Amino acid sequence: MSEAPLDDDPSTWRCYRHPDREGAVRCRRCERPICTDDMIQAPVGFQCPECVRGSGTTVRTIRDVAAANRPLVTQAIVALCVLAFLPSLAGGGTMGRGSGGFVRDLGLFGPAVAAGEWYRVFTSAFLHAGLIHIGFNMWLLWQLGGMLEPALGRLRYGLVAYTALVSGSFGVLLLSPRALTVGASGIVFGLMGAAFLAMRARGVDPMQTGIGGLILINLLLTFTIPGISIGGHVGGLVGGATAGWLLLDRPPQMAGVVAALAAAVTAGCFLVA
Predict the structure, then answer these.
(1) What angle do CA 265, 140, 123 make, to 5 degrees?
(2) Is 176 annotated as catalytic?
(3) pLDDT attached to residue 200
(4) Calpha distance 145→137 (Å, rounded)
(5) Can you tell me the distance from the alpha carbon of 252 to that of 97, in angstroms, rounded to the nearest whole number?
């Protein structure tokens, strides 16, 4: 195995397909310079589109890979939360006819759920009570989702987020059913639990990374600051960690029943709630 000698002449270090662009690497097969748009991941190094087509391999550029790994589920959750919060910025207030109207009509409230308004179990997760509330939740959601969604895939990531949402709502209805509760904190705590399990499944000690400390700090805040939903946070953490364990860190002999167990946990949490 040999490497092509470096060429110091800038005029020859230009993408052969886009002469106005500087070459980023050389094609592994033909050794012609290629820019980032033409770099195609190969088993070893990168190849140009012509060499890939000649080998019969499916063409996937760096841009294609980036687009496939975009955290679309995370972006959708953030967009829904922001859209639901926008009316409050127009002067609706926390409990007025702006976003407060949504809080009153769609927030999680035990007696209303018992009266048949079961949709509150889900809609409450996309509502927030103030700028600090939504800002902190969206920041954590964006960070955790950007890390987890590409690693898990959209389907499994969506299952984790959904289970955390339902489990968080279950925790609220169990511990404080008469409190009007809103926020995506259940999802956020669930993602923290899943991230903890994802690192452990890959041989990384979560306590040596930021995720272990993040969970401990947020649990400390949950139990010491008044007005924070203990049931929503702990319920979401347990649900997300459970889903993460089933999908990532399960014993090998459970591989055939993972989907059934995950569905059973989700359905059970919803029915109990």
Answers:
(1) 55
(2) no
(3) 82
(4) 12
(5) 53
For 81, other C-beta atoms within 10 Å of its C-beta total 20
Domain with CATH 1.20.1540.10 in the chain: 70-272
Q: Give the contacts of 9 (CB within 8 A, at least 6 positions apart).
A: none
d(CA 259, CA 273): 21
In angstroms, the CA 223 to CA 270 distance is: 25
185 catalytically annotated: yes
pLDDT (0 to 100) of residue 156: 86
Polymer length of the chain: 273
Cα(27)–Cα(55) distance, integer angstroms: 13
Active-site option among 88, 99, 167, 185 = 185
Query: What backbone phi and psi angles, to 5 degrees, belong to 61?
Result: -80, 170
For residues 201 and 148, the answer to whether their CB atoms sit within 8 Å is no
d(CA 85, CA 173): 23
User: Is the whole model's pTM more than 0.90, yes or no?
Assistant: no
Residue 26 phi/psi, 5-degree rounding, is -105, 145
Catalytic residue among 88, 128, 229, 233: 233
For 147, residues 6+ apart whose C-beta sits below 8 A from its C-beta are: 195
- Does residue 212 contact residue 241 with C-beta atoms inside 8 Å? no
The pLDDT tens digits for 99-110 are 557 788 899 999
Q: Which fold has domain 70-272?
A: Rhomboid-like fold (1.20.1540)
